[in-house]
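[Meeting: bench + compute handoff]

Bench side (C.D.) handed over the final construct sequence. Compute side (W.E.) agreed to return the predicted structure before the next meeting so the bench team could plan truncations. Sequence as handed over:
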Amino acid sequence: MRKALTFSAIALASSMALAVPTAAFAADSTSTAHSASASAEAAPVALKISPSTAKPGDSVQMSMEVPDGSTNLSISSEALNNVKMTDGRGATATVAKVADGNYGVSLTGSGPDGHKLQATAQITVKDGKPTPKPTPTPSASTLSLSQDHGKPGDKIQVTIKTAPNEKSAFIKSDAFGGQVNLKNDGKGVWTGTAVVAKDVKTGYYGVDAFAGGKKFDTVKFSTDATGPVTPKPKPAPLDPSQHKTPKGSVNTGQAPIGWVPSDAADNG
């Protein structure tokens, strides 16, 4: 019985001696791994660009903040050409020929623990040249008549509006006997008077409008050549001085009385 107890005590003591270092080793490993992971996650990742505003063709410098041991670092942007990584944690590039505006710059890579790294920056592209004024679109020429119908001899007011630099404007129509020239006020407004032709016939006529020698519009004009029936003029009364006195009668302004048989009886 005594030997068994001694053996058991020795076995228990041996077992306890072996277990203590094993537990201590496991605790150190876990702490180290946790510390390494926390360090990788806490490391800053950033991208800076200078100058932040540039024009096409300018060179820019970039600097990166990434954890030690990072790999596969790459910088890209629509606004940058010829991106080159330099020694350390920097890069250079040339601003591309792009339209004015703000552009994103992206940094990608892999951290020392294999996790993906990503950061962004912004660059403003401005060529510094004044923005050209848009070329004004010439307004379409227009024609207007004071009325769209008339009778022979009627006067129709004509107005054509064109671009201010137009050199000529006129209308043509058989309703007005041909071409009607217009006067310019110097601001692109042309005016004149068209007279309905005397020999025009009842019906519809086209009125063609021209600006700068080119026809730009045609409008319809109706005519009425029937007109009212003109009454015959009444004869004017004769002036007394124009009356003729028949022979053997007195000028009374009236026709002479005809011969009657009673006159012959009286003379007898």
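W.E. noted at the follow-up: DSSP finds two helices and 17 strands in the chain. C.D. will use this when planning the next construct.
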